[in-house]
Amino acid sequence: MQVIETLAEGLKREIKVVIPAKDMEVKMNERLADVKDKVRINGFRPGKVPTAHLKKVYGKSIMADLVNEIVREQPTAILAERGEKSATQPEIAMTEDKDEAELILAAQKDFEFTLSYEVLPPIELKSVKGVKITREVVDISDEEVNEQVLKVAESARSYETKKGKAADGDRITMDYVGKVDGVAFEGGTDQGAELVLGSGRFIPGFEDQLVGTKAGDEKAITVTFPADYPAKNLAGQEATFDVTVKDVAAPADVEINDELAKKLGLESADRLKEIVRGQIESQYGSMTRQKVKRQILDQLDEMYKFDTPASLVEAEYNGIWNQVANDLAQSGKTFEDEDTTEEKAREEYKKLAERRVRLGLVLSEIGEKAGVEVSEDEMQRAIYEQLRQYPGQEKQILDFFRSQPGAAASIRAPIFEEKVIDHLLTEIDVTDKKVTKEELLADEEGEASEKETKKAAPKKKAAAKAEAAEGEEAAAPKKKAAPKKKASEEGAE
Questions:
Q1: How far is 343 from 338, CA to CA, in rounded Å?
Q2: I need a labelling partner for 15 at 20 to 30 A (CA). Which of 47, 65, 114, 433 fits?
Q3: What is the rounded average pLDDT of the residues 438-447?
Q4: pLDDT at site 327
Q5: Pairing of strands 429-434, 132-137
Q6: Does the keyword Cell cycle apply (predicted)?
Q7: CATH of the domain at 324
Q8: Partners of 224 in beta bridges
Q9: In angstroms, what CA-CA distances link 298 with 129, 304, 459?
């Protein structure tokens, strides 16, 4: 077998592989000898079939198998022999001429194919001993814990049916049918819907018009959907909702005690406060972690400058761009609305993709040299978290992970990355700094990002995701009730 390098330009490589027809014929004859005693052909005793006849009957199929095996196995062996790692699966090109293919299968012509690929660039790791980062830490006060506990208590408060008119803070139970131009629209009908007046859950003007109604009332409510409403067919449209009030209930007093805790499945009010404090700590800890990680990645970005495989950058760029396009489509905005152009945005996203790929390669090399591994238990826990997000769809999700080779990698990659960050934190200089909640939650990109790139608003979401190299969560299923605000405004409920 001849292996000839025909292109070595930057990270691009092209290899021509030639296997002489004689060598292919030898391999074919070896296979024929193996099957000679196994095949049964009418007119011949077992093991007595002439080789020429075997070749006539099975030669082409055996040669086709040989070709497939060579194409499947040799690229890996060739790259290993050359000491190279391909950024993506090498592209394989063979003759498409039918006559040539027939000659190859008949062992009358050399079998040739080419490999085209990009190599991963060699990365010489640098010491991180001089890297210094600041870890912002927030002290959680009892007052903040009590405020959150109060919100929990208010969300769990009970309501008692009352006579008379509904007031702000009362909960009404209703049936409604929404119409635009007299025609009911999809998702605009519900029965037995509960709404606390003044909660701001429904679009502006809806709740205000229900104040003063009582059980049994029928009322036509006219509202206008916000211009940025997610459903484009409703955005900016005037709609009428025919509402039938079924019940009006007044809120009971909120008391934070053991009885409330037991209602929530806990043993005491102290345990409730302990859990709430833990949740706040987790939320702040996540933000602290994100900022720490950002600082590390920014400094690694300054330390390492090298060419990145164009194929990886293109794949990363396509993923980011698709997200941006979806964000724009959902918001109904254009790049012009954000004081930029598509051309400028594409240029910035390409830089963003290059950064992500470069940092990914650096983290991968650091993790490999440090012996970082993702255990099977960690993988199982991550998959279980995916299953929890989609109750009732567990089987489909498990089947997806089993059938798609890249699916498991998408779960493993962010775990590996976080473990590499943990490893780096043991080697770099970390200084804790006490900050307020407001300082911790402040957007650290802010002014610098504006000066640097003048990013468009819809880009910031993708930019933060890409630059911080954070794992991506699946989007939650959309809610049904049309008169509600968009999901992002309902999240705190």
A1: 13
A2: 65
A3: 68
A4: 87
A5: parallel
A6: yes
A7: 1.10.3120.10
A8: 238
A9: 15, 10, 19
Q: Which two tokens stand for residue 391?
A: 């109750």
* Same domain for 301 and 185: no
pLDDT-derived band of residue 38, with 50, 70 and 90 as boundaries? low
DSSP E strands in 158-284: the ranges are 159-161, 171-180, 183-196, 218-224, 238-251
Is position 448 within any domain? no
CA distance 190 to 176: 6
CB within 8 A of 6, min separation 6: which ones?
A: 14, 15, 16, 114
Q: Which domain holds residue 74?
A: 2-118
- What distance in Å separates the CA atoms of residue 490 and residue 199, rounded to the nearest whole number? 10
Please, what is the Cα angle at 379 between 373 and 383, to 5 degrees?
A: 160
Number of domains, the chain: 3
**What is the C-alpha separation between 208 and 171, in angstroms, rounded?**
13
Q: Which two tokens stand for residue 65?
A: 């198998």
Neighbouring CB atoms inside 10 A of 55's CB total 18
DSSP string, 365-412: HHHHHHT----HHHHHHHHHHHHHHSTT-HHHHHHHHHH-HHHHHHHH
pLDDT over 70 (residue 446) = no
Percent of the chain exceeding pLDDT 90 equals: 62
Q: Indicate if 282 and 411 belong to the same structural domain.
A: yes
Cα torsion 440, 441, 443, 445: sign: positive
Q: Where are the beta strands (DSSP E) in 98-165?
A: 111-118, 132-137, 159-161
In 3D, which of 294, 425, 445 has the Cα closest to residue 355?
A: 294
Q: How many CB atoms lie within 10 A of CB 296?
A: 22
Asked, for residue 455, whether it belongs to a domain, the answer is no
Let me know whether 92 and 238 are in one domain.
Answer: no
Whether residue 166 is found in the same domain as residue 296: no
Residue of 483, 336, 473 lying closest to 328 (CA atoms): 336
A 10 A CB-CB count for 445 gives 16
